[in-house]
Write a structure and sequence with these properties.
Layout lengths: L1 E4 L2 E3 L11 E4 L2 E3 L12 E3 L2 E3 L12 E3 L1 E4 L18 E4 L17 E3 L7 E3 L7 E3 L7 E3 L49
Length: 191
């Protein structure tokens, strides 16, 4: 395994490269292209990605432990096959459209100013997660734990309360309509 600790990578093009069996600890990636990069059996510990493109990156058995993504493009990334041990991420100003988080433990995960259009959350533990100013247009939420999750400033979501555990979740008054889509009723808010 190739190990890297405390390194900074800036403006590096890793697109479509095989980066399997690498370990990165406390590394910073800035302005890098990881589009379609293969990270199978690699590990990232306490790393940050800023202004990077990770669209369609392959994450088979990839360890992602306390990793921050800032202003990154992660379109179509399947986080489901990531190693679940200590999986921990945060996203700020990221594009996560068409991504999948099947069966991930994402308690207290923070998404801020993110686009999560058509993303898949299925059987995910999102207890205490925050979706601050996120666009969830056509995102799918099925059989998740959304207890204490905060959707107050999120928009365009459609969540079926009958298919998700939602005790003490937080929604804005205007967002309640997103919980009623299943019933096909039109909700109007008169001022």
């Amino acid at each position: 395994m190739n190990s890297h600790a405390g390194k900074q990578f800036d403006k590096t093009d890793f697109s479509e490269k095989d980066m399997s069996r690498h370990e990165f600890t406390e590394c910073e990636f800035m302005n890098c292209n990881f589009s379609k990069t293969n990270f199978t059996n690699s590990t990232f510990i306490d790393c940050s990605f800023t202004n990077c493109n990770l669209s369609l990156a392959v994450l088979n058995n990839t360890g992602i432990k306390t990793v921050k993504f800032v202003n990154c493009k992660l379109m179509g990334v399947n986080f489901s096959p990531c190693n679940s041990f200590l999986f921990s991420v945060s996203f700020l100003d990221c594009i996560l459209d068409l991504s999948s988080f099947f069966q991930k433990n994402m308690k207290k995960t923070v998404f801020v100013n993110c686009s999560l259009k058509e993303s898949q959350f299925e059987e995910v533990d999102l207890t205490g997660a925050v979706f601050k100013n996120c666009d969830l247009l056509h995102a799918v939420f099925t059989r998740n734990v959304l207890e204490k999750a905060d959707f107050r400033t999120a928009k365009n979501y459609s969540i079926n309360p009958e298919l998700n555990k939602m005790k003490r979740s937080k929604f804005s008054y205007l967002g309640i309509a997103g919980l009623l889509d299943k019933y096909g009723i039109d909700v109007e808010f008169n001022e």
